[in-house]
Amino acid sequence: MSQVISIRVPSRYDEACAEFQKEAGVEVKEGLNKSGNHVYMVSYLKSSHEIECQGDYPDSVFNAMLKVKESFGGKLFYEGEEWNIEEKLEPVTKAGTIEKIWVVLCVLFFPITIAYLLFRLFIWIPYKVWRLTR
Known about the structure:
Layout: E1 3-8, H1 13-24, E2 31-35, E3 38-45, E4 50-55, H2 59-72, E5 75-78, E6 81-82, H3 85-88, H4 97-133
Antiparallel strand pairs: 1-4, 1-5, 2-3, 3-4, 5-6
Helix pairs in contact: 1-2
């Protein structure tokens, strides 16, 4: 699955690039990289002070971007949109009694409803048509 993740570093861009290469274990400084089954491309955009990774990158690349963000600041982008990891996390609440009852009823009655509809479609309706036309 191809994904694009990037980070814009406002200051000390060259140091951030070196830190990223060291943490990610990037073989080729810029261009196509391979790591196991992962094939991805790393680009360093000097004009916008951005490190971009595109393709099926390993977790080490993502962790390296997080480390660069932590060390040098900047903004993390996923598919071109700013990505703030802390804001995206929502606490998961435990289901209440009513929600549990609805889940159990849905699990029980869904197969019964499907069986009834199939019975009406393939047996009852053809039988009624046959009775009326004979």
